[in-house]
Amino acid sequence: MFIDVKDTIKNIKEEIDIIKNELTFEPKLVSLVVEPDKSTLSYLNSQKRSAKKYGINLEIVESNNLVEDLQKHNEDRNTHAIFVARPLKKGFTELDIAKNISPFKDVEGVSLYNIGSMFYEKELFIPCTAEAVVKIIEDFTDVKGKNVVIIGRSTTVGKPAAILLQKHGRDATVTVSHSKTENLKEVTKRADILVAAIGRANFVDKSFVKEGTIVIDVGINVVNGKVVGDVSQDVSEICNLTPVPGGVGSLTTAILMRNVFRAAKGEF
Ligand SMILES: Nc1nc(=O)c2c([nH]1)NC[C@@H]1CN(c3ccc(C(=O)N[C@@H](CCC(=O)O)C(=O)O)cc3)C=[N+]21
């Protein structure tokens, strides 16, 4: 079975509509990009479509100096929100972004301030993909005490999703596995909920899961011009699987757009 995320997206859209009604101007999102890879191009297309749909002024900027451009847009009162596409090239690290982006415009929740706030369980802006993962799981089931296994320890998905899922009140039992994990399949077979955030097309097949597992496919891989996830689609025969496209990615974009409205309104 495939998990339908339409209602989860609808909830985000309702949050957007409430903020939009209170705003008297069109918010502006600046997306800074350096040599976009295929998955970034896919995201930018999705951002363009959604910005148009929700009424956001999206400016995509090819950046030669990320830190300089960040500082410029931090100060520019007409820029409400800033997104920096990964992978980063040309000598900049994720930590450079984390240190230099204004927390109030940081709609992906990557700044040290926002990451720290999440760590202390007082979330402001949090990484959109991790939030999408948590929202899909929570709309489908109660995670309290459940075994959630995450494959991948990225700053954007694996690590923040682990923090969010084990939060007091949500109370999942979280295992983070990665490329050096021994006996990976033994670990993933113990999962009630499996989050695949590896970045390799069709990496997870039926041999990784027990029947009835909830499988969240975070992968956006472009193979022969088509978007495919990290999970082989036939896993849906024995598990509840999120589709790609039309799953985590589409919710992630909606959450990013909602965060642009929050930044414009000055909620944080
Ligand atoms: N700083 C940063 N944050 C990211 O979150 C980030 C990034 N950089 N670099 C690139 C990857 C890729 N990514 C996607 C998210 C949503 C869709 C998306 O909305 N996909 C739609 C449409 C896919 C299509 O058909 O083109 C879907 O899955 O239904 C795609 C790709 C976020 N990433």
TrEMBL record:
Gene Ontology, cellular component aspect: cytosol
Catalytic activity entry: (6R)-5,10-methenyltetrahydrofolate + H2O = (6R)-10-formyltetrahydrofolate + H(+); (6R)-5,10-methylene-5,6,7,8-tetrahydrofolate + NADP(+) = (6R)-5,10-methenyltetrahydrofolate + NADPH
InterPro entries listed in its UniProt record: Aminoacid_DH-like_N_sf, NAD(P)-bd_dom_sf, THF_DH/CycHdrlase, THF_DH/CycHdrlase_cat_dom, THF_DH/CycHdrlase_NAD-bd_dom
Domain Tetrahydrofolate dehydrogenase/cyclohydrolase catalytic: 9-108
Binding residues for NADP(+): G152, R153, S154, I220
Gene Ontology process terms (BP): L-histidine biosynthetic process; methionine biosynthetic process; purine nucleotide biosynthetic process; tetrahydrofolate interconversion
Gene name of the record: folD
Subunit annotation: Homodimer.
Pathway, per record: One-carbon metabolism; tetrahydrofolate interconversion
Tetrahydrofolate dehydrogenase/cyclohydrolase NAD(P)-binding domain residues: 127-265
CDD domains: NAD_bind_m-THF_DH_Cyclohyd
Record keywords, A-Z: Amino-acid biosynthesis, Histidine biosynthesis, Hydrolase, Methionine biosynthesis, Multifunctional enzyme, NADP, One-carbon metabolism, Oxidoreductase, Purine biosynthesis
Similarity annotation: Belongs to the tetrahydrofolate dehydrogenase/cyclohydrolase family.
Record's function text: Catalyzes the oxidation of 5,10-methylenetetrahydrofolate to 5,10-methenyltetrahydrofolate and then the hydrolysis of 5,10-methenyltetrahydrofolate to 10-formyltetrahydrofolate.
GO-annotated molecular function: methenyltetrahydrofolate cyclohydrolase activity; methylenetetrahydrofolate dehydrogenase (NADP+) activity
Protein's UniProt name: Bifunctional protein FolD
